[in-house]
Write a structure and sequence with these properties.
heterodimer; A: about 60 residues; mainly alpha; 3 helices; B: about 775 residues; alpha+beta; six-stranded antiparallel β-sheet; about 65% helix; about 10% strand
């Protein structure tokens, strides 16, 4: 199992955990799951500043 | 495959020197001779991290292994591998790495230096711990999930740390200034201005009402003085009233006699009657004129204006002008307050960051001269100082009083003008009446019907009426001297006072003082309220100015500074105000920072919950999340257990319906049969552990690597139970053959073979003698596992 595979397992686990949670909390954990997926990309595919800008752009819904 | 280990280990770490090319191969030896270490090294060469979740052991191996060399011969196609571990290059910190790359060591295939990955592609190693029952297996698997979550948590924490480095300067710039405070200050300012305005209106109303009360008190006091005049005035008034009564009596007597004479004259002829009518008209009009003139004199005296139409018209115009001036003054007072507030707003820009260094620059061009920034700012400061506290409460009171007086004067001047006009008309009518009287007298003379007595009576009547009018005027003068306004009689003054009391909703003049005091207190309280409201408005206006300027400065910094270049594209231009842009960015940044923190916590907590899924902790920080993690892990383990081999070998063909980690039990169901809960620990006997191990081996997917090694470690429980023949049969079975090319069964030393050897004979004795020989040489022996 590689680090990347371990992260994939964790992300899958988180998604399934979210499905076990009630409505509002489920949405919250799914959002956090998606954010984790993007954070794991920091320094791998994209630079830290690019990710920060992208996340901020989403937060501002531009 | 034959494995040779040239150990360079230290600090008591040992590694088996050799594992022969035998399958199934039984390896039995004393504890601490490096049986398991040898297997672990083979797992590492095959690219599998056996220390995942066991970081302490990993670093212990790193520190003690040295450049140990492993040589593997008899590989498929006659290849051989040599692998030199290089623990001096391994990362001394952190978790046991899952990626086993070039740093792990130096690999050679058939003597050629190759990449570590090339060596990994030649070998597959799978190790099973024979002392692991169902409960252990589930625990180990939950720990693997926990380890994965921990790794992800570390990666996320590192990413959040990097992002925080980028976001934090921005957060620091934004967090100190909250646009919501500005919005709230603006809201409060609106309320305060409304309060100030309503307080001022209320104050004006109260001042006016208070003025009415004061007027009523003055009127009441004058009336009291009139009702208790000085003796001289009292005597004079009594004398005049006595004279008035005597003349009124005489007039009544004369009128009666004249009427009688007229009747007699009427019987004697018309000229005399006509003369009488003419004389009566003259008398009536003269009296009317005298009354008007007396009124004119009174108003003229009160107003200090000559009783002339032009003079009165001029006074009226003056009074109206003065009233306009007062109205202008009232507006000016309001304008002063508004100007003061305008200066507050504008001057903040002239003292702010934008005006720095511009003091001598021309700001205002006037026709004849210019004003610099500093001059404008200083001029505004002086003007604000001049207007400070405008409008003043005393000025408002005075203004209301003066306006009331002026309005009353205007009304009286109007009356005077009307009376002058009326006097002119009455004079004209008197001239007409006198002419008619003369004509009637001529007619009477001509007719010769003059009656001396009649004429004498009429003359006397005229004189008496003049005297009555004169007495009335004198009585009025006495009343004026006594202080009654407009020379009113006490009765009239009392009636006016009653009206004033009704207007004030007071029943008795005695209550006036109390009423006035209460009103005065209301005025004072309201004045304080106005003052406080004005101060609050000023303070809030200052807050709004400061907050607005702070936000402008922050936005300017964001737009101009290099360190914020990456965020400048996110600041909106033109579509929204600076404050809206700032508020939006601030909310977004703070929310993002919070989300990052929450996300980092989430994955960390999920890892902790996974590690404790089989426990029943007393304190749980997030019960909802803990239950969800348990449910998901339960489902994961259910999928791993509900397989054909496990069902057949461990559960007697029953299906696994559910796994409840909290209750530490699983629910089994045979087709058509009832569901049956079974605690994990009911599968912990040696036989069941053996069955479970067999099932797990049969579940393995055959690897596509050319050399596959299956290791059954810690299998002492099976030997003790005399199950070795069963194990040998199983390992030679058709199910295992596609999975592994070579199988190792590793055991701790079971018995003292030297002591037992004398009690054995035949083939067993030969096996024991071989084992004793090997044990003497290297503390372990290897043999073909026999059925």
């Amino acid at each position: 199992v590689s680090e990347e595979q371990a992260h994939r397992v964790t992300l899958r686990l988180l998604k399934e955990v979210a499905e076990e949670l009630p409505g509002g909390r489920r949405e919250e954990v799914i959002e956090q799951h998606d954010l984790i997926a993007r954070l794991l990309d920091v320094g791998v595919e994209t630079s830290c500043q690019d990710v920060a800008q992208e996340l901020l752009r989403d937060a501002l819904s531009i | 495959m034959r494995f040779q280990f040239d150990a360079k280990a230290s600090d008591g770490l040992r590694v088996l020197p050799e594992i022969p090319h035998v399958t199934p191969c039984l390896i039995e030896g004393r504890n601490g001779i490096g049986k398991t270490v040898a297997v672990r090294l083979l797992e590492l060469i095959a690219g599998r991290q056996p220390f995942s979740g066991f970081d302490r052991q990993w670093h212990s191996l790193r520190q003690r292994l040295g450049r140990t060399v492993v040589r593997i011969d008899d590989l498929r196609d006659g290849e051989h591998v040599e692998f030199v571990f290089t623990p001096e290059s391994w990362d001394p910190e952190g978790k046991a790495p899952l990626e086993l790359g070039a740093w792990l060591g130096e690999a050679r295939i058939n003597g050629d230096l190759v990449a570590v990955a090339d060596a990994q592609r030649l070998l597959w190693v799978e190790r099973f711990a024979g002392n692991e029952d169902l409960d252990d297996t589930l625990r180990r698997r939950t720990l693997i999930y926990a380890d994965h979550a921990d790794r992800t948590s570390r990666a996320v924490a590192a990413a959040v740390g990097q992002l925080t480095t980028v976001l934090d300067p921005l957060r620091v710039e934004l967090v100190a200034i909250d646009p919501a405070e500005l919005a709230e200050a603006n809201r409060q300012l609106g309320l305060a201005e409304t309060e100030e305005k309503s307080s001022r209106l209320e104050l004006a109303r109260l001042v006016e009402e208070h003025e009415l009360a004061l007027d009523a008190i003055r009127a009441r006091d004058r009336l009291r003085a009139a009702e208790d005049p000085a003796q001289g005035s009292k005597d004079r008034l009594a004398e005049l009233q006595a004279r008035l009564k005597a003349r009124n009596d005489e007039r009544a007597e004369l009128e009666a006699r004249i009427e009688k004479t007229q009747a007699e004259l009427g019987r004697q002829g018309d000229p005399q009657a006509t003369l009488g009518d003419a004389q009566r008209a003259v008398r009536f009009r003269r009296k009317r004129l005298r009354n008007i003139e007396a009124d004119i004199d009174r108003l003229s005296a009160q107003l200090a204006v000559k009783p002339e139409s032009e003079t009165v018209a001029a006074a009226l115009a003056d009074a109206r002008k003065a009233l306009d001036v007062l109205d202008d003054r009232r507006r000016a007072l309001d304008a002063g307050g508004m100007t003061s507030r305008l200066i507050d707003t504008v001057s903040s820009f002239l003292t702010g960051a934008d005006a720095q260094g511009l003091d001598d620059e021309v700001l205002i061009e006037l026709p004849d001269h210019q004003l610099s920034v500093a001059q404008t700012r200083d001029g505004m400061a002086r003007r604000r100082e001049h207007l400070r506290g405008e409008p003043k409460a005393d000025e408002l009171d005075t203004l209301a009083h003066e306006t009331g007086q002026l309005r009353r004067r205007l009304a009286q001047l109007g009356d005077l003008a009307g009376q002058l006009d009326e006097a002119g008309k009455v004079r004209e009518r008197l001239v007409d009446a006198e002419r008619e009287e003369q004509q009637a007298e001529v007619a009477v003379k001509q007719a010769g019907h003059r009656d001396e007595q009649y004429r004498s009576d009429n003359q006397r009547l005229g004189a008496v009426e003049e005297e009555i009018d004169g007495v009335n005027e004198q009585i009025t003068e006495v009343h004026i001297q006594l202080g009654l306004e407009g020379g009113q009689s006490p009765e009239d003054a009392r009636a006016d006072l009653v009206k004033q009391l009704e207007a004030l909703a007071i029943e008795s003049a005695e209550e006036l003082d109390e009423h006035e005091r209460a009103q005065r207190e209301d005025v004072d309280r309201t004045r304080v309220r106005v003052q406080r409201a004005a101060e609050r408005v000023t303070a809030l206006r200052r807050s709004v100015t400061v907050l607005g300027a702070s936000i402008d400065a922050a936005v300017a910094s964001l737009r101009a500074e290099d360190r914020f270049t990456w965020v400048q594209g996110l600041l909106q231009d033109g579509q929204a105000s600076e404050i809206e842009s700032f508020a939006r960015l601030r909310t977004g940044v703070l929310r993002l920072v919070e989300q990052l923190e929450e996300t980092r916590n989430l994955v960390q907590v999920v890892g902790q919950f996974a590690a404790g899924a089989l426990e029943n902790p007393k304190m749980i920080s997030d019960v909802e999340l803990y239950k969800a993690v348990r449910a998901v892990l339960g489902n994961e383990l259910l999928r791993s257990l509900d397989t054909e081999p496990v069902r057949e070998r461990l559960f007697g063909g029953s299906r696994v319906e559910s796994v409840d980690l909290g209750a530490r039990e699983l629910v089994l169901a045979r087709n058509g049969g009832p569901s049956l809960p079974r605690p994990f620990d009911t599968f912990s006997t040696g036989e069941q552990a053996f069955a479970f191990t067999q099932a797990r081996i049969l579940e393995l997917e055959p690897s596509d690597r050319p050399n596959r090694l299956l290791v059954l470690d810690e299998f002492g429980a099976f030997v003790a139970a005399d199950r070795m023949p069963d194990l040998a049969d199983f390992l030679r079975s058709e199910g295992v053959a596609p999975i592994a090319d070579q199988v190792l069964v590793v055991l701790p030393l079971q018995i003292d073979y030297e002591a037992e050897i004398e009690d054995t004979t035949g083939a067993l004795r030969e096996r024991y003698e071989e084992r004793v020989k090997q044990l003497r040489d290297r503390d372990y022996y290897t043999q073909q596992l026999e059925a």
